[in-house]
Design a protein that fits this description.
Distance between the termini: 41 Å
Structural class: alpha/beta
Radius of gyration: 27 Å
Number of helices: 16
Strand order of the largest sheet: 4-3-2-8-19
Number of strands: 21
Helix content: 25-40%
Length: 617
């Protein structure tokens, strides 16, 4: 049996796993990445779900880098806006090539394809490594300092003995609006994706009639095959345009009486999974035949230049939900709805990934009655504590196996969020190795700073991009709770605003400065207005900051706009490099509004609140 030692072991090279490997390797760590299928990218590529769900305005970290490479390949944003379900669609094979190039150029990454985990090596409550096997019964053992479970099902979590959840929690258990009255084992439907290709108007690419084919199985999928009582049904052409890809191809991942399939695949043994996968493939082949024969699209055939499979279907099923670890914290729906509430306990301050997709649950094929009118949500972030198990050490959860409720899985399971979760998991493992500190004892602020430097959003502010001069300061200050944003539910692209150019109110400034310095009091010599909703001028804001700093005496004694002010002098003396001070002309424009960007920049650089450690416990 082959035995290998490494620093970081990542099991599963899906959307999370490949991003974890890239981030950890870029931080100089030695990585082993083990994947059962021949491809990297999981649901993005091998499962064929090459239409990005959400985060179009939040191209955070490696997700944004991946999208930029897609733009470069196809010729810009418009070239990938081919289907109406997404702003970014691409051929799975192209996505796989890009991810493989990113992984192989990241650093010390060793890829192992064809292996699946069969045993976790434990010493007391700590994972020391994983034993793998392949279809030829060959075995491999990899020992590592840290192991990331980035499998589609949460297999390492189960093999380690870590506590996990499976199915739907009850409303009594979680307190979530929309949760069922009783807990059950229903998870989201999976889908076995096909990619069809247009072979021309005269082509007939109709497949052989599948066994057990009955067109009524897909009753209601489109207007041409609906019924008179069905409302809001689209026509067949529109249904196909849903997942139109570049290259005259169509992703067949249709949720409305289409090719979704319910199964407990995640908790089955390997033999059971393989049997169920064949059943899910059969549903998709019946749907393909239905599209060709019943709807008349004989020119659309299974793409012969996409997947390296004998049946031309995707390499793996698209798994929306599997096991979910019981973590240091669990993200619940009410915490997303009200992130600043006392009940949420400041979980947003641990943010390591952002998302803006709504609650989207696929339950149609489960045969249960589900109220799909879930609560509208704002954009959100995912706390680091959701990646760390309560009891098992040396393990980090990624992909869809993080500590969220079934309800929240509906918005955290999407490709961009999962990519960011993987990137954060890789960064956490790399930091733990670098600092020789257990990952559960990491300073979250150090991890967040690493992720900020890697181009990630940690608060989901859609009105401030990394190109904004105060982006990082606004992120840090907001994560410290010193400035609060405002969320908005907005269909399929939810929002969260920090209002960077809006003036800071006196109330906001007092609350922030009092948090930074509990002894801070508004002094009479500030000529402070009684109305706390008053919008501060730059002069007023700077004087308040100066006093909260303890009224330091350092001054360059500059005469500015006929206003000599020790506080202004002090700020100028720091030479913070802000675009709102003209150092050559020594102009401060004291009567202009003190915007939230300026305020955040000043307190970030003068108080350094992000340097204060933040831990789980």
């Amino acid at each position: 049996m082959k035995k290998i030692k490494t620093e970081i072991l990542i099991v599963g090279a899906g959307a999370s796993g490949v991003c974890a490997a890239i981030q950890a390797a870029r931080m100089g760590r030695k990585v082993a990445l083990v994947e059962q299928s021949p491809w990297l990218g999981g649901m993005l590529t091998a499962a064929g779900v090459s239409a990005i769900d959400g985060n179009h305005k939040l191209p955070s970290g490696l997700w944004g880098e991946f999208r930029s490479r897609l733009y470069d390949h196809y010729g810009g944003p418009q070239a990938v806006e081919t289907g109406w379900v997404s702003n970014t669609l691409f051929e799975p094979k192209v996505g796989e090539r890009i991810l493989r190039d990113m992984a192989l150029s990241a650093g010390d990454v060793h890829l192992f394809h064809g292996f699946f985990p069969v045993e976790v090596l434990m010493e007391k409550d700590r994972i020391m490594g994983v034993r793998f096997s392949n279809d030829q019964k060959q075995q491999m053992e990899i020992r590592a300092l840290y192991t990331i479970d980035a499998t589609e099902y949460g297999d390492v979590i189960a093999l380690s003995g870590a506590e996990f959840r499976y199915g739907r929690e009850s409303a009594a258990e979680t307190g979530e609006p929309g949760a069922p009255a009783k807990a059950d084992r229903f998870v989201q439907d999976l889908t076995y994706v096909a990619v069809l290709k247009d072979y021309g108007p005269d082509a007939d690419k109709t497949i052989s009639r599948p066994q057990d084919y009955d067109p009524h199985e897909f009753k209601g999928c489109c207007r041409e095959w609906g019924d008179e009582f069905q409302k809001n049904t689209i026509d067949a052409q529109r249904m196909l345009e849903y997942g139109r890809l570049p290259g005259d191809k169509f992703m067949i991942n249709w949720p409305r009486n289409g090719n979704d399939y319910f199964s407990h695949l995640a908790v089955m043994d390997r033999a059971g999974r393989l049997a169920e996968i064949e059943k899910s493939k059969a549903v998709t082949l019946r749907f393909v035949y239905f599209i060709q024969q019943q709807l008349g699209f004989k020119n659309l055939g299974l793409a012969d230049d996409e997947f390296p499979t004998s049946d031309r279907l995707a390499l793996i099923p698209y798994i929306r939900e599997g096991r979910r670890i019981v973590g240091k914290s669990t993200l619940k729906l009410q915490y997303i709805l009200h992130p600043y509430s006392a009940e949420a306990a400041g979980l947003y301050q641990q943010g390591i990934a952002v998302g803006n997709y709504p609650l989207d649950h696929h339950h149609d094929k489960a045969g249960i009655a589900v109220d799909e009118e879930y609560a509208p949500i704002p954009a959100f972030n995912v706390p680091f504590a959701c990646l760390i198990p309560q009891k098992v050490r040396g393990l980090i959860a990624a992909e869809k196996s993080i500590s969220v409720t079934h309800m929240v899985n509906g918005c955290t399971r999407l490709q961009p969020v999962v990519m960011q979760i993987g990137q954060a998991a890789g960064a956490a493992a790399a930091l733990a190795v670098e600092k020789d500190r257990p990952v559960e004892k990491l300073n979250v602020r150090e991890l967040q700073e690493t992720l900020l430097q890697a181009g990630m959003w940690l608060m989901p502010f859609t009105d401030v991009t990394p190109e904004h001069w105060a982006f990082k300061s606004l992120q840090r200050v907001a994560l410290c709770g010193l400035l609060k944003g405002q969320g908005k539910a907005s269909d399929w692209a939810n929002e969260f605003y920090i209002f960077p150019e809006k003036p800071v109110t006196a109330r906001e400034a007092v609350e922030a400065l009092s948090a930074l310095n509990p002894e801070f009091k508004v002094n009479n010599d500030l000529h402070f207005p009684e109305n706390l909703e008053h919008s501060l001028t730059r002069q007023e804001g700077v004087r308040m900051i100066w006093q909260a700093l303890g009224s330091p005496k350092e001054s360059v004694n500059l005469f500015l706009n006929d206003v000599q002010d020790l506080a202004v002098d002090f700020i100028l003396a720091q030479n913070l490099g802000t675009p709102w001070i003209d150092f050559e002309k020594e102009l401060f424009y004291p009567k202009e509004p003190m915007t939230r960007s300026v305020f955040a920049h000043l307190i970030d650089h003068l108080f350094r609140p992000f340097k204060k450690p933040l831990f789980f416990e």
